């Protein structure tokens, strides 16, 4: 289902993304396509540093919306933004995740790693306990994966739609009855960054399909 | 605008069994769900998919509220002649979408 474009429902968003990519908008009246050729390999490198700030792909797209197109930022988790990130992400399908390590980015990586290892929520569980210690076992009938974010944004059958990695992480945080971070918050991007670093070398499969 | 993805083999031999697929973006709102304030969310579903092969109906499916969002239908038909395979979805709120693909039969 995932690897066949005729049956992967996320392809509906990829088509929307392709249309948005070519559409002029904002005070600058420019389309993404006016300034960019392709986006091959880009999704495999995010989150990344952008003038000393760590940004994920959705936030990077919004920077071009506001700074280049002079248009309002797209709401996180909106259909348009997911469509653009699915369209861009798909161009890296099959390419290895390639997160650069640097002195500058180390504090973000450390902070993401600490969040991954920290017990939290009323159930007092860390991500590690499930995704390292119990990976391969089952939780309420579902296999516990190793939490490698290789296919985002994903079409999740439970959502009946497309969602970002942060939406998936919210589900895991709510699952242990912790207060999830706000969409787009630095804590979330650092956690994303650590997860992508941890999955470095693995091939992207965006847009993936998950139960 | 509705978005649909169809898969029809570009060419086939007469008598071949063709596997056809039709995926369409649609919320398939059941009409049974309520908002946080208790109001019923009105039903909004696709009611029917019809596939015609050179104008002749070869497949028809009635949809019901229990079908998930973005429905994918896969079915087979026999290759008879070259021409056009057309898919037409219709539903609540005057929903209508059409998608077609050519096929060469030798």
Task: Give a verbal description of the structure.
The complex is a heterodimer of chains A (211) and B (106). Helix content of chain A is 39%, strand content 9%. By secondary structure, chain A is mainly alpha-helical. Chain A has two domains: 11-90, Cytochrome c-like domain (Cytochrome Bc1 Complex, Chain D, domain 2); 106-210, Orthogonal Bundle (Cytochrome Bc1 Complex, Chain D, domain 2), CATH 1.10.760.10. Chain A has a three-stranded mixed beta sheet. In chain A, strands 1-2 form a two-stranded antiparallel sheet. In chain A, strands 3-4 form a two-stranded antiparallel sheet. In chain A, β3 and β4 (142-143) form a beta hairpin. The termini of chain A are close together. With 106 residues, chain B is mainly beta. Chain B has a single domain, classed as Sandwich (Immunoglobulin-like), CATH 2.60.40.10. Helices cover 0% and strands 53% of the residues of chain B. Chain B is built from no helices and eight strands. Chain B has strands at residues 4-7, 11-12, 17-24, 46-53, 56-62, 72-78, 83-91, 95-105. A five-stranded mixed beta sheet of chain B has the order 2-8-7-4-5, with no helix packed on it. In chain B, strands 1-3-6 form a three-stranded antiparallel beta sheet, with no helix packed on it. The mean pLDDT of chain B is 96. Chain A binds chain B through residues 5-7, 9, 11-12, 15-16, 157, 160-161, and chain B through 3, 5-7, 21, 23-25, 28, 68-70, 72, 74.
Strands of chain B, count: 8
Distance between the terminal alpha carbons of chain B, to the nearest Å? 36 Å
Average pLDDT for all residues of chain A: 97
Provide a count of the helices of chain B: 0
User: What separation lies between the terminal Cα atoms of chain A?
Assistant: 12 Å
Number of domains of chain B: 1
Task: Give the CA-based shape of chain A.
Answer: globular
In the CATH scheme, the class of the largest domain in chain A would be Mainly Alpha
Strand composition percent of chain B = over 45%
Q: What is the percentage of strand-forming residues of chain A?
A: 5-15%
Largest interface: A-B, 11 and 14 residues
Mean pLDDT across the residues of chain B is 96
CATH architecture classification of chain B: Sandwich
Low-confidence stretches of chain A: none
**CATH H level of the largest domain in chain A: which superfamily?**
Cytochrome c-like domain
Order of helices and strands of chain B: EEEEEEEE
- Count of domains of chain A: 2
Unreliable parts of chain B = none
Q: Could you say what the CATH architecture of the largest domain in chain A is?
A: Orthogonal Bundle
